[in-house]
Amino acid sequence: MDRKKLKWLLLIALLLLATGIVVNTVIDLPAEMQDNAIMDQVSNLSGWMFFLMVVIFAPVMEELSFRSWIIDKKWAKYLSLVLISGYMALTLNIFWVIPIAALLAFNLFAMEQRPVARTYVYIVITSLCFALAHRGNLDIQHYLMAFPVYLGMGLLLCWIGLKLNFAYCFALHILYNFTLITLGGFTFAFEAPKHLEGDTFNGELTQVSGFTNKTSTPTIVVNDSIAINRSLLTDVAKLTLINSDYKIEIYPESYRFYNLHLAKKNTTPIDQNEVLQLLIKEKLIRVDTIEKTKTIRIFEK
Question: Which candidate, 72, 101, 228, 299, has a CA 20 to 30 Å from the CA of 288?
């Protein structure tokens, strides 16, 4: 493709990415755990399984699916057709496969004598499919806010592949996903332990790496001690409310995991509500109680 036209592709990609970042920064809309598939996975999968899935498996499969057409070989375009169709069937709906596969097949066979136009069609269709394939990650509100980022990322990866080499698409995508979870606090534990002391307890809240093995350190919440291990901060707070009759919703904001170890100070059992109030006082969480629906919402700050 013409270098000037590639510059326009880069400009549009960066504009979409910037728009998405601004929208998500200005509209700070917390997502409940059940509406955020990635947060649900990071909480329930082992650390290494989550890391391999997000940083290795997902980027490799997505690049093979949505950008392998960049390779100047007919088999690569067939591969892209098959994998994108499969991706759409798995992540969205089987009915999406028919129009998308038809468009890709038309572009592959009917546009063979018009390589420049065919490249444009590939860029648009595969980038849109890349954005649509991430629909399952979020609820509809958060997905619409994130859509410019997904679309911009798809266009940027097309630009990288066309400008440099298809192999660079793998490298950038892996680096991007690794950076996201690292900045989110999953990979490394940088925070110093926080001493917590109340009238009925004494102990520490310690950040741990997401790679920490949860199965070897079970969660225990009893009157004499509290040992909550490798849990998101909102989960830590939720576990102090295990005896509550209210419905509890959690809204995590990061991938940071914590251990909470508390022991009672005297003969008085640990007051779990006091633990929750101290977490609020330390500005680690925010709790909203909705009496009408008997719901407690826990937000990470």
Answer: 228
Q: Are strands 247-251 and 295-300 parallel, antiparallel or unpaired?
A: parallel
Query: What is the torsional sign of CA 71, 50, 17, 88?
Result: positive
What the block records as the tokens of 157 is 């990866």
245 alpha carbon, distance to own chain's centre: 31
Whole-number Å distance between alpha carbons of 78 and 232:
43
Report residue 96 as tokens: 């999406």
Handedness of CA 102, 106, 107, 109 (dihedral sign): positive
267 Cβ contact partners less than 8 Å away, ≥ 6 residues apart = none
Over 80: is that where the pLDDT of 220 sits? no
- State the Cα angle at 54 between 177 and 68, rounded to 5°: 80
**Full-model pTM:** 0.87
pLDDT in tens, 95-154: 888 999 999 999 999 998 999 999 999 999 999 999 999 988 888 888 999 999 999 999
Catalogue all structural domains in the chain, each as residue range(s) with its CATH number: 3-183 (no CATH), 194-300 (3.55.50)
